[in-house]
Specification:
The protein has helices spanning about 10-25, 50-65, 150-155, 160-165, 200-215, and strands at about 25-30, 35, 70-75, 85-95, 100-110, 110-120, 170-175, 185-195, 235-245, 255-265, 270-275, 280-295. Helix 2 runs antiparallel to helix 5. The protein has five helices and twelve strands. The protein has a single domain (about 5-125, about 150-295), classed as Porin. By secondary structure, the protein is of the alpha+beta class. It is about 15% helix and about 35% strand. Strand 1 (about 25-30) and strand 2 form a beta hairpin. Strands 1-2-4-5-6-3-9-12-11-10-8-7 form a twelve-stranded antiparallel beta sheet. One of its GO terms (biological process) is fatty acid catabolic process. Keywords: Hydrolase, Lipid metabolism. It is an enzyme of class 3 (hydrolase).
């Protein structure tokens, strides 16, 4: 959908996106040193730094040291981020080749690394082309109700923390398919896009995708069980995160996040995601392992 034809977003999303774009405009301290800031206190659930924010800011820092496009990133979350302290990003220029470049970014708070990431960049060139298509029809985003438009009976079935999560204002508009419906497989799908049009800067769209790729994904590891990473029965945290970007895309047009979880065991769950644009092109792939540790004795599986 051309950007000029997109329907208007609500005012809260527009303000949040403007703040997100500001968060991704890092302050350069030195050639390879950048400083990022956290959302204002007005943002809800600001108890620790959102992992997608660190992913996106670390990618922005790496991108500012190279003139070709990022195609993959592999990251580890080491410590929870302090939302009241700025984050310093140190970029190591590992390699600059004719076709590829590699950067390593370390996020630092209070003198300690909280996050590390390697990013690979690739100069565009022609090559073979194929993709794995979706195996089932998916309703378009216009046919999927937003949370505020869900029938009251559906909203009543959702646990309070889950409903609270989906209702909160955010810079990324989310439309989950079949929210609250029983699942027979660990699979789920979510349409998402930035809450308003973004500038025509591909590097910014890649950073916004990195930000959004950490949203909702870990829930795929609990969708078969009588619990959620959004409640108080599970101690949840992202442990690592990998993102591959395959084709050009716009993060302010609808993207479909097709998620599954091949395995959960030993208090860890593996989640995967394929990101498609509205035309059905596979634009990115994601993988994440997370901590999903039960914290209540009454927790039982319901697979």
């Amino acid at each position: 959908m051309p950007i000029a034809d997109q329907p208007a977003r609500d005012a809260s999303s527009t303000a949040s996106v403007a703040e997100l774009v500001g968060l991704l405009d890092l302050e350069r301290l030195e050639d390879n040193l950048f400083r990022g800031y956290n959302p204002p206190e007005s943002w809800p659930f600001r108890t620790r730094v959102f992992g997608g924010q660190v992913l996106a800011q670390a990618l922005v820092a790496a991108q500012r040291t190279v003139d070709i496009a990022a195609h993959s990133m592999h990251a580890y979350f080491l410590l929870g981020g302090d939302p009241d302290a700025a984050i310093v990003y140190e970029v190591e220029r590992v390699r600059d080749g004719r076709s590829f470049a590699t950067r390593r970014t370390v996020a630092i708070q209070h003198g300690r690394p909280i996050f590390i990431m390697s990013v690979s960049f690739h100069r565009e060139e022609p090559g073979l082309d194929h993709q794995l298509d979706l195996s089932e029809p998916v309703p378009p985003p216009e046919a999927v109700p937003g949370i505020g438009d869900l029938p009251e009976a559906v909203r009543a079935r959702l646990p309070a923390p889950v409903l609270d999560y989906w209702m909160r204002p955010r810079p990324i508009e989310l439309r989950p398919i079949g929210l609250g419906e029983p699942r027979s497989e660990p699979r789920r799908m979510v349409w998402f896009r930035a809450g308003r049009a973004l500038p025509d800067e591909p590097a910014l769209h890649r950073a916004v995708l990195a930000y959004a790729s950490d949203m909702t994904l870990l829930e795929a590891t609990t969708v078969l069980h009588s619990t959620s990473v959004l409640g108080n029965e599970i101690q949840a945290a992202s442990l690592d995160h990998a993102l591959w970007m395959h084709r050009p895309f716009r993060a302010d047009d609808w993207l479909l996040y097709a998620q599954d979880s091949p395995s959960a065991s030993g208090a860890r769950g593996l989640a995967r995601g394929l990101v498609y644009d509205r035309q059905g092109r596979l634009v990115a792939s994601v993988a994440q392992e997370g901590l999903i540790r039960p914290v209540t004795p009454s927790w039982t599986a319901n697979a």
